[in-house]
Specification:
about 425 residues, alpha+beta, UDP-n-acetylglucosamine1-carboxyvinyl-transferase, Chain, 2 domains, 5-stranded mixed sheet, 4-stranded mixed sheet, 13 helices, about 30% helix, globular, binds shikimate-3-phosphate
Length: about 425
Amino acid sequence: MIQEFNHIETVNGQLSLPGDKSISHRALIFSALAKGKSIISNLSSAQDVNSTQEILHNCGIHFTSEQSKILVFGKGIWGLNRPQKILYAGNSGTTARLLSGLLPMQKFDSVISGDESLSKRPMKRVSQPLIKMGAKITLTDDNYLPLQIGKSNNLKAISYELDIPSAQVKSAILIAGLFLEDETQVIENVDTRNHTEVMLSLPVKKNDHQTIISSSIKYAPVPQEYFVPSDISTASFFIVLTLLLKNSSLLIKNCSLNPSRTGILKVLKQMGANIEILNNFISSGEVYGDILVKSSNLVNIEIDSNIIPNIIDEIPILTIAGIFADGNFKINGAKELRVKESDRIKSIVTNIQKLGLNIEEHEDGFSVFGNIQNKSVLFESFGDHRIAMAFSILSLILEQGGKINNFECIKISNPQFIEQLNQIIG
Ligand code: S3P
């Protein structure tokens, strides 16, 4: 489906956005592993989160809803049932990778599959450490899904230094560690999002260069009430839109402010963005609060490559901010973009070329120069929700608007994107 966007002048008002996708996946998984009833409020409506819930349901976990809350009847760490079908993770890397940590520890075999995009994303990064723990996992010859999991009797704790900064890999290992008496350790040289350790209250040690996180059966989840704060990655699209339009102001309520995710706010503020945090609350260890954003004149800066894992999902929308900021926009050290829902470097480069801007592609990033030449453009989503939404925001700013091909993929993270936009368009 092609979605058309007309140019808008301002946005104003406030938004309450659905729950954070990363926290929602974990709230579902940890509730399923806890013995008893957990309650989740503001669970994400993303299709990806639905994939996690559906798999847990196929493993015998019962869910009901009450008002806007989800009740999860967890069965304890070894309580899952053998699924009667292949477990389909859809487009969701987080579902496939986090559940890869959980399923090999069960007393049954299972298979995880995914859609076309997920079936081309690297899985060895997660199977390799799990196989070291004794998990029986096989992938295709190219190391892709489907992931076949067998029963294993010889599971053991490991200490594993991540060679790729990936919260999904870290989480898979730490989740597997919850089934073992001995302590499993994950060593990070570059920090990645820390929801797993925060939500499970895992011990974390930091020295000058590394973060070491441990897990063991002592930290197996117990039933809880989770409030999932709004998704900062979703909020970023609306934040950049507000910054780039004149006479605009937007309050985003109860948004996740976990420091391992707020790199986008830090970078935008360094670029001159008028962004204020109005208050701070905590639920299940996760910090959240309200974000007030106002129209700003942005200037491009040198983006430190150490912050890349913190802003990895926001690079498409940050690029849109960068196009309109003074100076040239440049990203380096972001090779991981090549293995997201699409090759995001290619996707961004292709769409930006359609604007007539000059863009130089590198293996781990890109640099944008020049001025927008072509004013009415049909952008391609490449079936990637964050590319579709980033170029929707750009279309709203372009004088003659713009169109997005294959727009329906936005449902992967935010099915209500258009309704939310309509709430704030002046
Ligand atoms: C996620 C981690 C990140 C991120 C993804 C969600 C998570 O991936 O890009 O959208 O919830 O752990 P990597 O950890 O593979 O970089």
